[in-house]
TrEMBL record:
Keywords: Bacterial flagellum, Cell projection, Cilium, Coiled coil, Flagellum, Secreted. PANTHER family: FLAGELLAR CAP/ASSEMBLY PROTEIN FLID, FLAGELLAR HOOK-ASSOCIATED PROTEIN 2. This is Flagellar hook-associated protein 2. The lineage of its organism: Bacteria, Pseudomonadati, Pseudomonadota, Betaproteobacteria, Burkholderiales. It comes from Duganella rivi. Coiled coil: none annotated. GO terms for cellular component: bacterial-type flagellum filament cap; bacterial-type flagellum hook; extracellular region. Required for morphogenesis and for the elongation of the flagellar filament by facilitating polymerization of the flagellin monomers at the tip of growing filament. Forms a capping structure, which prevents flagellin subunits (transported through the central channel of the flagellum) from leaking out without polymerization at the distal end.
Length: 897
């Protein structure tokens, strides 16, 4: 049996010997660990550098475009009335702004329905067309009936009338429509409602209609006297003793009322006009301001009088008195419904309740707004079904159902609410219904949805479509939204409520100071990190983990080189380097900012500071605009030559439109707009044209709105404009420019496309074509982009205007922030120098780990060899020791023998 523990038999400490030998053999392992730690430290350092460079790049993001510079402050005196923002094009100054109305959307409501799921009507197929436009003329309000008969004598008692929950100050002296209108108008600031008295007109039958006999000749031969007064003006007098025919007759009365007579002048002074004649029984008196007109015949109490109003000649006249009264109309200032109440609204000619409608108005569809159709039949003729169909249409009207909470057997709490999606006066709805197959629209649906501001209004308006109205320094301005743009150049106003305020526009030097200071700080922070990672500390005699690394050295040098160079390519700018705005390098490599020098630059060259930091383009042709550039776009001044302007796809009609064009019911056309190659099904849709008769302008408006109302088109930003030319033909234009702009229409059902367009011709649009700086550029619509490989690579310009050939020059410069941002991008990202360097270092660390593993495996073999060798030696020595001991014993025994 062999020895189980090394050294036991020989006395040699095999484990210690092997351990010491292996300590020597494994000494290189520490070198592997040192190398790995060194490379990992560099990886960590590059991570820190990447973070610092990323922070630096983030600080540049707001400085690489013009939006970070040339900022102007817009400060309202009262920011509860409006807020404002200003761009660099705004002109400093102070403005007085008075907001008199804030834009709102129109809201319509139906009457109540018991449930949302019960069928409405018979289910007959009905097409409902929604169009949006503007109401003009007329008013929105309530027309009253003639005032109560007792009003002319007893007035209107206090509390008899309330409007929008405000009591109107009436009493016993309120005896005419004019006086009542005055009382209502005195409260218009509170109620939002004004009143207009209708003209007072005496009865058409007062003087009869059967000729002279209805105003019999006045006969006072019986000893009586007679006088006739109108509105307090005595127009005829006859003393006693005058026989009939010799005094007042219908003819003499007409003579007194005609021409420049004393009676006519007196009536005019009383604001009373005369129409008709007594001779033919049509004589009427009118007071335009709504004052009462009293007509009285006074007959003396002694003697007899015959003839007069309503009395034939010879018929006794005992005197008469009648008072004509008028009515008033209530007008809502903002188109809101009017609430009428009080103890006796009937005395004022009204019925208690809430109401209002357009009166005497006209409606004009807005061609810039979309229109659309829904079809209601037995599958969806419920409130819920109608709401779903309208909302699915997505044509500028949203629908909902609101319950008023009423309960009970006969309760009808559910109301259909329609709201125009956009604000502005041009968002007023007109809802038309038509049947199918020659049948009329379902009457129940007509009663529910029929709405025409110029006609039947079966829905109630709860809020009127309204524009924002304001004055800026006394100049009237309007906007379809709460925002107002363009009234003040470069300034956008956001109105919040009505009222007056001031607005101060000034250079936002604090923001510019902050941007420049942020640039300086960002660079110094990056520079500090670079020094920490790659510098050498003489005191501690230690270097940073990236000391001597070429990547960080090149980065630092590139940044310093770019910041020390001058900006070129932007002609006319007085600022070309950082020192001109107070930024300069210090001996320690940091930047410092001279605020006084920056302030002077802001005052003297405010518009040029952006060019020092951002990518800026300026052209001599105002119709050529800078869009964007890339890091490969080189600064310079480039000539622009245009060989072809961008055009829009068109469909030009050849048929001269008649005075009226009839579109039949069930007319549908298939429209393909801005289609691509290969064709995309989303670029083709079927539109339904509302049946009706249209003049050329109305037809263009209807067709444009119908096409633009297709949700698939509007979602893709595809729209058209429709115009009627001087030659009377209709033309459709895609609003898009370029080779992807086109429009084609085909008849599906009903009225043929040829009825409107004749043999119309579709022409696809063309892209702009030309060169920039003599180099090839690619056109896409109105955008011209510099080709790859040229100094103008990536330079994008928008080419508008209407001329080809030379279009002047375009200067482009890359400011420091833009250049440094591009430089940083070259070091960051998946293909950046830092990422590549880090990837290489990590690969090296992995290679070292593999080498270390291989070396460790070799050490195991070496240790085994050492142990095998010393185990053999141990065994040999142990055997020799055993032999020696045996021989010693033998020799000792022999010696004794």
């Amino acid at each position: 049996m062999g020895i189980s523990s090394p050294g036991i038999g020989s006395g040699i400490d095999v484990n210690t010997i092997v351990s010491k030998l292996m300590a020597v053999e494994s000494a290189p392992l520490a070198d592997f660990d040192k190398k790995s730690a060194s490379y990992l430290a560099q990886v960590s350092a590059f991570g820190n550098l990447s973070g610092a460079l990323g922070s630096f790049q983030s600080s540049l993001s707001s400085l690489t475009s013009l939006s970070g510079f040339q900022t102007m402050s817009a400060t309202p005196g009262d920011n509860s009335i409006l807020t404002a923002t200003a761009t660099g094009t705004a002109i400093p100054g102070s403005y007085r702004i008075n907001v008199t109305q804030v834009a709102q959307a129109q809201t319509l409501a139906s009457g109540g329905y018991k449930t949302t799921t019960a069928a409405i009507g018979t289910g007959a197929k009905t097409t409902i067309n929604f169009s949006l436009g503007t109401v003009s003329g007329g008013t929105f309000g309530i027309t009253g009936t003639a005032l109560g008969a007792s009003l002319s004598t007893g007035g209107l008692t206090p509390g008899a009338l309330t409007i929008n929950n405000t009591a109107i100050a009436t009493d016993g002296t309120t005896r005419s429509a004019r006086l009542l209108a005055d009382a209502i108008n005195a409260k218009s600031t509170t109620t939002g409602v004004s009143a207009k008295a209708a003209a007072t007109v005496t009865s058409a039958t007062l003087f009869g209609s059967g000729g002279a006999s209805t105003f019999g000749d006045i006969d006072t031969s019986g000893g009586g006297t007679y006088s006739l007064s109108v509105g307090g003006v005595e127009i005829a007098v006859q003393a006693a003793g005058v026989a009939g025919g010799s005094g007042i007759t219908a003819a003499s009365l007409d003579a007194a009322l005609t021409g420049n007579t004393a009676v006519a002048r007196a009536l005019a002074d009383a604001n009373i006009t005369v129409t008709g004649t007594a001779a033919d029984g049509t004589l009427q008196f009118t007071n335009a301001d709504g004052s009462n007109i009293a007509i009285a015949e006074a007959v003396s109490s002694t003697g007899t009088v015959t003839g007069g109003i309503g009395n034939a000649a010879g018929v006794a006249n005992i005197g008469s008195s009648t008072t004509a009264v008028s009515s008033i109309s209530l007008i809502s200032a903002d188109g809101s419904p009017i609430s009428v109440g009080g103890t006796n609204p009937a005395g004022a000619g009204f019925t208690a309740g809430v109401g209002g409608a357009y009166l005497g108005a006209s409606f004009a569809a807005d061609s810039t707004r979309t229109s659309g159709n829904i079809v209601i039949d037995s599958s969806n003729n419920t409130l819920a079904g109608i709401v779903a169909a309208i909302n699915k249409g997505n044509f500028g009207v949203t629908a909902s159902i609101v319950s008023d909470g009423s309960t009970g057997t006969n309760a009808t709490p559910n109301r259909l609410i329609l709201t125009s999606s956009a604000t502005g006066a041009s968002s007023t709805m007109k809802i038309s219904l038509s049947g199918s197959g020659g049948n009329p629209a379902d009457p129940a649906l007509e009663a529910l949805l029929g709405y025409d501001p110029a006609g039947t209004q079966n829905l109630s308006q709860k809020a009127a479509a309204a524009d924002t109205k304001a004055t800026v320094n006394g100049i009237d301005v309007t906007s379809s939204s709460a925002g107002i743009s363009g009234a003040i150049s470069g300034v956008t106003l956001s109105t919040l409520k009505t009222g007056s305020t001031t607005l101060t526009i000034a250079k936002d030097s604090s923001a510019l100071n902050s941007s420049v200071s942020g640039f300086v700080k960002a660079y110094n922070d990056l520079n500090s990190q670079i020094n920490q990672l790659s510098g050498y500390n003489a005191d501690t005699k230690t270097g940073g983990p990236l000391l001597g690394d070429s990547t960080i050295r090149n980065l630092s040098a590139s940044i310093r080189r770019e910041m020390s160079s001058s900006i070129t390519g932007l002609e006319g700018s007085k600022l070309t380097n950082l020192s001109q705005i107070g930024i300069s390098f210090q001996k320690d490599g940091t930047l410092t900012l001279d605020n006084s020098k920056l302030g002077k630059a802001i005052n003297d060259n405010y518009g040029d500071i952006a060019g020092l930091f951002a990518a800026v383009g300026r052209g001599t042709d105002p119709d050529i605009k800078f869009v964007s550039s890339t890091g490969k776009t080189q600064a310079g001044d480039y000539r622009v030559d245009i060989t072809q302007l961008a055009t829009q796809g068109t469909l030009q009609g050849t048929a001269v439109l008649p005075a009226e064009t009839t579109i039949d019911a069930d007319t549908t056309w298939t429209v393909t707009l801005n289609d691509t190659v290969p064709s995309n099904v989303n670029n083709t849709a079927t539109i339904t044209l509302p049946a009706g008769t249209y003049n050329p302008s109305q037809l263009a408006t209807m067709l444009q709105s119908s096409i633009n109302g297709v949700s698939a088109f509007s979602s893709a930003g595809a729209t058209v404009t429709a115009t009627v030319g001087d030659d009377g033909t209709l033309k459709l234009n895609s609003t898009r420019y370029g080779s992807k702009s086109n429009i084609h229409i085909n008849t599906a059902t009903g009225t043929s496309v040829a009825t409107v367009f004749g043999t119309g011709t579709s022409v696809d649009g063309k892209d702009v074509a030309g060169t920039i700086g003599g180099y090839t550029a690619t056109g896409d619509g109105q955008t011209l982009t510099g080709a790859a490989g040229a100094p103008i690579e990536g330079l994008k310009l928008t080419i508008a205007g209407d001329t080809t050939g030379s279009r002047g020059s375009f200067g482009f410069s890359q400011g420091y922030a833009y250049q440094l941002n591009t430089l940083a991008s070259g070091y960051l990202g998946s293909d950046g120098a830092i990422t590549s360097r880090t990837t290489g270092l990590n690969k090296t660390v992995k290679d070292i780990e593999k080498q270390k593993t291989a070396f460790s495996d070799r050490l195991t073999d070496i240790e085994k060899r050492y142990r095998d060798q010393y185990s053999t030696l141990d065994t040999t020595i142990a055997s020799m020791n055993t032999t020696a001991s045996f021989l010693t014993q033998q020799f000792a025994a022999m010696a004794k023998a």
